[in-house]
Design goal:
The protein has 414 residues and is α/β, with parallel strands linked by helices. The chain has 15 helices and 15 strands. This is Alcohol dehydrogenase-like N-terminal domain-containing protein.
């Protein structure tokens, strides 16, 4: 990283208040997270805000950290990137936010002033992540992310009572007191990311849409697709509780992929094949023995069984929104099918969602009643039970799809 970038980037680690403590969910190792008492962060930079968290949750992508499959996780890291709260303190260069204001915090950390941020490409921010490892892996560094390893900047996350938020003017969204936390919390990530999935797949009027994965992102993606005018949506999912939730929305059907030919079945359910496909699964889900073995022996980091199924299922000249997490390298990628199914090939777009680009519009849609994001909440564990919630969520047990968690010091907005 250049000397100029070192000077302009936000300090990675916050200052800690030696006189105050808080509760936080802390990473210790593979499948080992613990709620502990840790020092409370402070405003570190003039553009920071200190947030007292009123609501947080566990994201499906947090399970990659839970399994220690994201590089540069360290013992003692505070997890969580979906959270909201009350502004407790601000730096003297924060212009548009004030103490006492109720805000949602986006998972991605943008500076708001670099060339990427000026183009609205906030997850490409050049300022907020100094990871040399990421630059070597991907050619460039992406933005920082809360609670998501030192590969994305090492920022302490939102499964805590307090969080320091850099560049508060760009990374927080004021929300009206007329909406409870349950309806706005998910603007921090999944409500925006699922909209972005539809944007990437260019879902529009009368489209036939197939979505792989019925977790939180898949559920939101299905509803947004219908709101955007899709004629039909099929969610491909193995877990019965998730299929039932998907089918509870008009126009959405589900498909259990176990033991069937998904490609041929989708051709029958969606004649001509899906116009648009969304991958909401990710790198950890191996369907075939070859990928299970190759991941086990580290011959690849990412299984592409499901992505291959998506490419084969998508109609010629179709579109794919790839917003599931993939982190490294994969074998047996079906590049031939991708190239041959259209003169310009099937269109694939994806990546980490720049939440700041969409969240004001989506907040407006929530206020108008187009969608009630609280539909996704299936469990409300106590803060001290976060480790148990991780284990249940990881095993897809007890019908768990999404948690809503209040830290001990939270003020409830109901």
């Amino acid at each position: 990283m250049s000397e100029q970038r070192i000077k302009t980037s936000t300090p990675i680690m916050p200052k800690w208040d030696p006189t105050r403590t808080m509760k936080a969910n802390v990473f210790y190792g593979t499948c080992d997270v613990r709620v502990e008492t840790v020092p409370r962060p402070m405003v570190t930079h003039p553009k920071d805000a200190l947030i007292r968290v009123t609501a947080t949750t566990i994201c499906g992508s947090d399970l990659h950290l839970y399994h220690n499959e994201i590089p540069e996780m360290m013992k003692g890291d505070i997890l969580g990137h979906e959270f909201m709260g009350i502004i407790e303190d601000v730096g003297d260069q924060v212009k548009d936010r004030k103490k006492g204001q109720r805000v949602v915090v986006c998972f991605d950390i943008a500076c708001g002033t670099c060339d990427y941020c000026k183009r609205g490409e906030f997850t490409g921010c050049d300022t907020t992540n100094d990871s040399v490892t990421m630059e070597k892996m991907y050619g460039y560094r992406l933005s920082g992310i809360f609670g998501y390893s030192h590969l994305t900047g090492g920022y302490p996350g939102g499964q805590a009572e307090y969080v320091r938020v850099p560049f508060a003017d760009i990374n927080t969204l004021p929300v009206p007191d007329s909406l409870p936390d349950e309806k706005v919390l998910f603007l921090s990530d999944i409500a925006c990311t699922s909209w972005y999935a539809n944007e990437c797949a260019q879902v529009g009027k009368d489209d036939k849409v197939a979505i792989w994965g019925g977790g939180p992102i898949g559920q939101f993606s299905a509803r947004w697709a219908m709101i955007r005018g899709a004629s039909s949506v099929v969610v491909v999912e193995t877990v019965e509780a998730r299929r039932k939730m998907a089918e509870s929305y008009p126009g959405v059907k589900s498909l259990n992929p176990d033991g069937i030919d998904v490609v041929e079945t989708l051709k029958k359910m969606l004649p001509g094949g899906p116009d648009a496909c969304i991958d909401a699964t990710g790198f950890r889900y191996s369907k075939t023995l070859v990928h299970k073995v190759e991941r086990t022996i580290k011959a690849e980091t990412d299984a592409v069984d499901i992505l291959e199924e998506i490419i084969r299922s998508c109609r010629k000249y179709g579109r794919i929104g790839l917003i599931a997490d993939y982190v490294g390298y994969a074998n047996h990628f079906p590049i031939g099918a991708l190239m041959e199914k259209g003169k310009l090939s099937i269109l694939i777009r994806g990546g980490q969602c720049p939440c700041q680009r969409y969240w004001k519009d989506l907040l407006g849609r929530i206020e108008k009643g187009q969608i009630d994001p609280s539909f996704i909440i299936t469990h409300r564990p106590a803060f001290e039970d976060i480790p148990k919630a991780y284990a249940t969520f990881d095993k897809k047990e007890d019908g768990m799809i999404k948690n809503f968690i209040r830290p001990p010091s939270a003020v409830a907005y109901t």
